Amino acid sequence: MNSGRIRRKLRNPIFFWSDELTEKFHGRVLEFFNRDCELQFFMTWISSVESFGRREILAVGSVFKSHPNGCLMILSRTMDSPQGYLVLKPLLDRGFKVRAVTPDLPFLLKNTRPKLGSITSRVVKGSGVIPLAQNLSNLMRLAVLYKYGGVYLDTDFIVVKSFKALKNTIGAQSVDSTSKNWTRLNNAVLVFDMNHPLLFKVVHRVEGRPGYNFTILPPMAFYPVDWIKIGKLFKMPKNQTDSKWIEAKLHQLNEKSYGVHLWNKQSSKLMIEEASVMGR
């Protein structure tokens, strides 16, 4: 499916606009990551700049807490603006390398494998369950990692440990209690080399096959708390049992996890209470 047909099908063609910013996309990416980056990270943001709030800043800041010499690019037209610059300025003033860049989706999709065409078609048609913006975010993260390689993170993922040792990695969200085999993967965290074929293949079809070298980490690596229980991380201890649970969870996160997915749909309205896991 060519970019013209995609534009006609999309309800909101802003994501496929071509202008001065999109035309400079590839050059801006190469220039930004040519800065002795410890690791190159990507996030996507399709919502308004006003909705990029404290939770998102917390996630961005966590990247640099574990990777002070890392580089983070936020693919976003709304954040690639004077107002977006002001949102990120406190991090820039501390010397961290973060930049919002308007993506050029037709360029990202150009000359990719045929599999991406079917993904694009599903994005345009919509799933009936997953919103268009989420589908576009899913598409962008695959395409940008395929083009440039690096680490993709959702904006509700809090990094707690360096990713430097990870290579071609995706995390399991759940495993079978008996077989211990994964039952669901999650793409909130993706770590892949440039041009890795897995990015456009169905994982269960290629796992273990030659040429598709990658690692599936257990839920504890990226999803140590299930979305149903995520609220417990925000609650202050009410008794000694709660305090012991918080201490045990902090120890577990520090020892076994690279970060915590906060499941924003469930936790976005929760306040971080004093002495909670998140408050610590």
From TrEMBL:
- Write down what this protein is called: Receptor-like protein kinase
Q: What domain of life is recorded for the organism? A: Eukaryota
**Mind telling me which InterPro entries this protein's record contains?**
A1-4-GlycosylTfrase_dom, GlycoTrfase_DXD_sugar-bd_CS, Nucleotide-diphossugar_trans, Put_A1-4-GlycosylTfrase_plant
Q: Name one Pfam family in it.
A: Gb3_synth
What is the protein's species of origin? Hibiscus syriacus
Any one Gene Ontology MF annotation carried by this entry is: kinase activity
According to the entry, every stretch annotated as the Alpha 1,4-glycosyltransferase domain falls at: 212-278
**Which Gene3D superfamilies does the UniProt record give?**
3.90.550.20
